[in-house]
Amino acid sequence: MLNIGAIKEGFVLDHIKAGKAMTIYHDLRLDKLDCTVAIIKNAQSSKMGRKDIIKVECSIDYLDLDVLGFIDHNITVNVIKDEEIIEKRALKLPSQVVDVIKCHNPRCITSIEQGLHHIFVLTDEKTETYRCKYCEEAARKRD
Amino acid sequence: MALKHLMSPLDLSVEELETMMDLADDIRSHPEKYAHVCDGKRLATLFYEPSTRTRLSFEAAMMNLGGTVLGFSSADNSSAAKGESVADTIRVVSCYADIAAIRHPKEGAPLVASMKSLIPVINAGDGGHQHPTQTLTDLLTIRNLKGHFEGLTIGLCGDLKFGRTVHSLITALSRYHNIQFCLISPPELRVPSYVIEELKEKGIPYAEVVRLDEDTMKGLDILYMTRVQKERFFNEEDYIRMKDFYVLDREKLEQAPKDMYIMHPLPRVNEISVEVDDDPRAQYFFQAQCGVYIRSALIMTLLGLAKEN
Questions:
Q1: Which residues 88-147 of B are in CB contact (within 8 Å) with A?
Q2: Whether the predicted pLDDT of A33 surpasses 80
Q3: Dihedral of alpha carbons B242, B247, B252, B257, sign
Q4: Which of A47, B3, B151, B161 is most deeply buried (CB count within 10 A of its CB)?
Q5: What percentage of residues in chain A have a pLDDT greater than 70?
Q6: Nearest by Cα to B29 from B297, B302, B264
Q7: Hey, is the C-beta of A109 within 8 angstroms of any chain B C-beta?
Q8: For residue B226, what pLDDT is reported?
């Protein structure tokens, strides 16, 4: 397997669906940070066939990973400190997601009002339903 | 009451709703007592889409309390035509008025306004989403007609997909015991899935039917008719196909129970024949009257004037 240098402190996001790493890179707003980020595409995986991996070198308090719970439950979050995995963090559904997905309801105020955040609120944990804060339209899950 | 804005009927607890309806009944019985409670107060009516009835009802409600009104009645007459955002408009209007009622074709626009406003904001209808003051009107009408909500079977007929009055009313009535719904609509205009989900979740019995006939009307306490709204359709053909799907005329009404009241948010087009108006079960004009009393009670409540009277 391709080897990217170990990180001192940060996160390794494993078991990302192949081809989705760049989307998650943007969802986590990693493009806005100046820390070291390694993106591994199409790595071999016995469980998934192919998978993506993201390694982020940053303080472990620095990154809000809640949004990953909304994007994909199956992503494994390894928290690294002093080059050791100190925690495998379980992903849970965030109570709301901001500017990750857009409301597709053409009648929603977000379709015309400038500067409005696209906010989706968790309304049903059992069915993992998120609804637009403004018009209550159910979120469409991304592939 | 801690209520700052009214976006949805659920912003009010059942107890708060009862208190507001008691106040509305008192305004109805003793209008002179309330003729000056809003002296010096201003209501802004920000109507981005035309709705003569709701706007006039709000204006009458404020004027009956001694207050004054200002505003616009369509987006063309407002800064929206110049591209001003809802957020900016409400910030400016907050400097001119003490309370605002907003109707907007886009869903969630009043919520955006309430997030930026310095004064109480009332959702006076947002697209096909919510229309809480119509719901308060409907609840006050039902309480006056039936005396209670518990155990009632409510039939809702017509455009249940885009009919926001229907969505709000179902949500509000769902909080009462043993309530049941009969949802009568063409398959294309069925109640949206999120409303059905709510009913299922709360274990509230409901039936979805297409025909408005004797069988359907049997056992209904209220038949709530709605208009198929042209402005909600993207294509004219669909509207024409749907608009006369249900027509309640004298002949059909003969098959209905003697104690089944007919309500309608108005305006009506063809769905209730004029000949039905004289039937004692037709209560839609009384309903319009209730709309003024409950809006007065709401304005007083949001301005913090309800306790003083």
A1: 104-109, 111-112, 126-129
A2: yes
A3: positive
A4: B161
A5: 94
A6: B297
A7: yes
A8: 93
